Amino acid sequence: QAKEAGRNTVRFFDPQMQEKINAHAQVEQDLYRALERREFSLFYQPQVDAYGRCIGVEALLRWQHPQQGLIPPGRFIPVAEATGQILEIGRQVFLQACRQQAAWQASTNTAQLEIAVNVSARQFHASAFVDQVQQCLQETGANPERILIELTESILLKDINEVIGKIRALQALGLQFSLDDFGTGYSSLAYLKRLPLAQLKIDQSFVRDILTDRNDRAICRSIIALGQSMGLRVLAEGVETQAHWQLLRSDGCEEAQGYWFAKPLPLAELERWLAQHAF
Ligand code: C2E
Ligand code: MG
Ligand code: MG
Ligand code: MG
Prior knowledge:
- There is one protein chain.
- The chain is α/β, with parallel strands linked by helices.
- It is built from 12 helices and 9 strands.
- The chain has an 8-stranded mixed β-barrel, surrounded by 4 helices.
- Strand 5, helix 7 and strand 6 form a beta-alpha-beta unit.
- It is globular.
- The structure holds ligand C2E and magnesium ion (MG) (3 copies).
- Ligand C2E binds at residues 45, 60-61, 72-74, 77, 90, 93, 118-120, 150, 180-181, 204, 237-240, 257-259, 264.
- Residues 24-278 form the EAL domain.
- This is EAL domain-containing protein.
């Protein structure tokens, strides 16, 4: 009842806001059903080294909605984060990625492949996260050294010492860490120097216009130099053309991901792609 009144008040002042609230509530309801009916799956996007060889894949979540078709994560992850549903969704994503790593480990062609898994700030900060990861590893027999957890700078809104402690606990299990969308969020160099990372991912917004925008190119070049001089691997996201990749290569970039190499692919297509690309 109170909820109704709240809604009416909002509608009175701002119909657009009301629409957003309704849409959010609808997604939340649909997400419960999606979890029950297993409508989520992972797509995999190849990541390549300086020579264009595939060294890993990023697991990207997709929602096969019975009416709306394939829904990209940008449309439901923010809702799942707000409602807390991300905890269960994220657990299933991590478990599935571990199962996949374990399967690839069994075959010599794919044993070296790394899987990068996105973990949201809320999931990372949950008290059960380390146990959950440990359980997934045990249950599947996955090799933790082939799993890279991608965090965004939003984890830094909490106490940095807690963040470092948790990363270290997970590193002790063998996992590695990457900082996703680097440069778009809350990171400062003071934090960066303390985070025990293996990789920085240059956000695609800096990569998109490197051919024409001197500032974007300067930013990419600086991130590459900064990361490498700190002993980190640096991967450029959103590499869409050969010209982008050539420029990034000439600025010293040694890892990339983007439509130029491959789009995120369902498992069967990825395995076909892998078979055609030596790695
Ligand atoms: P992200 O982790 O930065 O992932 C990269 C996004 O860039 C993906 O979008 C990918 O499809 C897209 N992309 C890859 N190459 C190119 C390119 O060459 N050009 C362009 N324009 N885009 C490219 P996607 O799959 O829609 O995912 C969006 C975001 O949703 C991800 O950004 C990540 O933050 C989040 N996400 C995806 N899966 C998960 C998940 O399992 N858990 C969590 N917490 N977040 C996820
Ligand atoms: Mg990512
Ligand atoms: Mg990213
Ligand atoms: Mg992104």
